[in-house]
Amino acid sequence: xxxxxxxxxxxxxxIFICLGAGTxxxxxxxxxxxxxxQVNMTKQNPDTARPGEPVELTVxxxxxxxxxxxxITVKVNPEYPFTGISGQSLEKSISYLNARQDDNEGGxxxxxxxxxxxxxxxxYDIDIVTTYKSGxxxxxxxxxxxxxxxxxxRGKEYAQIVTIDKANIDIAKEETLEFIVTNTGTSPxxxxxxxxxxxxxxxxxxxSDNTKYIKYLDxxxxxxxxxxxxxxxxxxxxxxxxxxxxxxxxYESNENTINTTAGVFVGGETDFDVSxxxxxxxxxxxSVANVGNNIAYSVKVSVPKQENYKVxxxxxxIVGNLEKGDxxxxxxxxxSTQGAEASQESGSRIPGTAKAGVEEExxxxxxxxxxxxxxxxxxxxxxxxxxxVDKEVELELSGGSMPAQAEGPGKxxxxxxxxxxxxxxxxxxxxxxxxxxxQEKIQLMKNKKSGNKNPGEQKTDIKTLRD
Length: 467
Fold this sequence. Notes:
Blueprint: H1 2-28, E1 37-45, E2 54-63, E3 69-77, E4 82-84, E5 91-97, E6 107-115, E7 122-134, E8 141-153, E9 159-164, E10 168-169, E11 175-183, E12 189-197, E13 203-205, E14 211-217, E15 222-231, E16 238-249, E17 255-266, E18 272-280, E19 283-290, E20 296-302, E21 309-312, E22 316-322, E23 327-336, H2 338-346, H3 356-359, E24 363-364, H4 365-368, E25 373-380, E26 386-393, E27 401-402, H5 419-450, H6 455-466
Parallel strand pairs: 10-17
Antiparallel strand pairs: 1-2, 2-6, 3-5, 3-7, 4-6, 7-8, 9-11, 11-15, 12-14, 12-16, 13-15, 16-17, 18-19, 19-23, 20-22, 20-25, 21-23, 24-27, 25-26
Helix pairs in contact: 5-6
InterPro entries: Ig-like_fold
Keywords: Membrane, Transmembrane, Transmembrane helix
Protein name: Alpha-galactosidase NEW3 domain-containing protein
């Protein structure tokens, strides 16, 4: 009987030990180091956090112990790349939890965090701190537990056209158009397809289509895409839109499309052909033609200061607008300074003579030979920018000299240039006066003859006339 009683006692003791061990084992196998409270993250929305976007955490709080709990406080302590959101509390409370709760019982709390925009793909830890009270009155005990959960961050897949190296495309001229594509996200991109289109059909690719492929582009890296393009010869100068389309693939092989636009200016500078047209009485006429593909506004033609030539009067003239293919004539009074240079080099200039008196010299074939005239053309292009073009013109004069226009007393090209004409006029006037005197004498002789004068008088008159 005693043996049976001792055996029964041992069995009962073993049962209590096993039950205690089972309770302790159940608590040790939980998600939090607590003998009576389990805290678990049951849901994350979205499943992987994305940089620059919020993420919502759903946390379950379950009392699996044998005692009721009260004043439960759950607090989330975020670390980089997570931060709190304004207006969203990171600490929430549950007033009471019954003992021995099932899986579908307990409290459910939700927390919102913001993911940093520059976060890289990976996993990050967050601590959840829980405080609660067990017991009642003066015998109640406050417990604090800490649980670490892991959040996954998915990198941001995004690319953009950072720069276009050439924003100006000349008309009817082959140009290179370069796009610099940068992965501004935090995850690698692969199998990217870049294409563009001008809705008006003015700018078109040449030698290839408008599509380029990028096999792989790591986060933060850039790649240059080069196109050969040309603008329509009949295009109106102005700003045109390029619609750019980028299709990219993330590490989960999901396709994303990014659409953007860029502007390019069609039309640019032009060119001119300047040639000697003619010379007349001291004027040099130049033919100025717009040989480029763009219109030139407010064209101004000038003869700048230079060694071999000098302009008498205005050195500039405004000829207005020149369409492509148009031309105009600009005239200037040009003199040669070659004689002055020769005089100064030999030191033969007459002392006391004004320098201006020897600086000007009529243009001759010898004085312009191998001495091109420098001409400057200023114009405004279609973008409103003022452009200057320098040209040189060979003056082709025949033998002899080109008379210079009068500039006032004491200068070459003044009244002395008219001396040949004055001499001709004087000779013509003298001849006219002489002829009139002859006619008067003949008339006088006729009058005497009709008056029956004696032969001696007639002979005398004829002799006089001969004299």
